Request: fold
Amino acid sequence: MICDAEKPVAIAGVMGGENSEVSNDTKNILIESAYFNPRSIRKTSKYLGLSTDASYRFEREPIQLIPMRAAERAASLIAEHGEGIIIDGSIDVYPVIIKNLEVTLRIKRIERY
Reply:
């Protein structure tokens, strides 16, 4: 569950809550972009009988390094097209340090494919 200080807001990676929707009266937006374990999302989705666009995406191994870049891009688009103002500061919390994967390829082998 994703919760604010008082109540549940969403089922992580499966379903957002109505109380977190953006409306014409919305003045402030907190952008949350996350990586969830695909197996955990699949189990939760099946257990609750909820197959959603979110669960479909998160069940299929999203790239772990993307969330911060995605949040920054969303903020820039809101500022550019929605007349929003970006307030400095972001928080990146993940319990595992994710290292970039390095792949070594030989040009000759690539050319064969």
DSSP finds four helices and three strands in the chain. The chain has a mean pLDDT of 87. Helices lie at 38-48, 53-58, 67-81, 107-112.
